[in-house]
């Protein structure tokens, strides 16, 4: 099995190194990741400048672009054989609910999915990398599941509690929860006295009911959410067709 690994925290992040180490024994891996932290890059492609690919001492490739750039280059410009699976992460912090629209971690997996390749995004629920070894072990087990019950390609979003492996709950199928709107921007000044803005914190959970990714991880379970790309609002489409007839 050939696996392409990427992330949005950058090629030096502990999460991607732990994930690569966990998967080396079960697959032929290649790592192509951003040269720096690109959290929140979503599905953006760099169209305003050329991109470069360099190789680190550990064999990882790093790109001066977004997570989507990395996967796009790996699939269309590096090597002849496509991977059997693309995995992204392990992210330093959760990607649940509305986070998935902003997440570079999920975006890297989504790019593979758009190319017809099964993909899985992995995130730890809390920042700080606590119990990263346990998260990497869970990620390995998830990859080994193969998910033959799903049509290919599939796109899975996995969120792993920061718990010791022995305290981890089961793999739990979930739907996306919802957040309240984000906190306001933070106003500040740069050293020259010019007004600057920092993006505020994400909103608190609005829907963390049973069956959601928020609920599962709050109860120590590993959340696995199947994602899709079609953003069409089907009920409103029907209303629109009726209203414009």
Description:
The protein has helices spanning 14-23, 67-77, 99-102, 104-114, 132-145, 213-218, 234-244, and strands spanning 2-6, 28-34, 53-55, 61-63, 85-91, 119-124, 155-160, 171-173, 178-179, 186-189, 195-198, 205-207, 222-226. It has 245 residues and is of the alpha/beta class. The strands form three sheets. Strands 3-4-2-1-5-6-7-13-8 form a nine-stranded mixed beta sheet, sandwiched between helices. It has a two-stranded antiparallel sheet with strand order 9-12. It has a two-stranded antiparallel sheet with strand order 10-11. Helix 1 (14-23) links the parallel strand 1 and strand 2 (28-34). Helix 1 (14-23) packs across helix 5 and helix 2 (67-77) packs parallel to helix 4 (104-114). The chain is globular and about 55 Å long. The relative contact order is 0.15. The mean pLDDT is 94.
